[in-house]
Amino acid sequence: MSASDNTPLPGGDFGLFIARLNIHGLMSLGVVENPVTGKKHTNMDQARMLVLDLEMLVGKTAGNLTELETNQLEKVASDLRHLYDQKSQG
């Protein structure tokens, strides 16, 4: 077992959760490379699912987040929607 196996993973932080969804969305859209494979790959179905999940979170969490969390969530959802729409049309 390596030392990294004993390192606790961050969890329970809303900002990090949204950041992870954002990175996953960017990888699905082929904007950033997958750190495991070192390659860019586009999966529009997966990207669409992430965009819809983020948009659902915006609605379901309305009034329950801090201003910073709301702004982060709305920005990530909007940015990924924009990128998804661009890739879908082009």
List the helices and strands and how they pair.
Elements: H1 14-28, H2 44-60, H3 67-89
Helix pairs in contact: 1-2, 1-3, 2-3
Query: Which structural class best describes the helix and strand composition?
Result: mainly alpha
Beta fraction of the residues?
Answer: under 5%
Number of alpha- plus pi-helical segments: 3
Shape: flat
CA-based gyration radius: 15 Å
**What is the average per-residue confidence, as pLDDT, rounded to a whole number?**
91
Q: Please give the domain count.
A: 1
| Poorly predicted sequence stretches spanning 5 or more consecutive residues | none
Counted beta strands: 0
Q: Major sheet, described briefly?
A: none
Task: Give the terminus-to-terminus CA distance.
Answer: 46 Å
Give a structural overview.
The chain has one domain. It contains 3 helices and no strands. The longest helix has 23 residues. The N and C termini lie far apart (46 Å).
Based on the model shown, name its key terms.
90 residues, mainly alpha, 3 helices
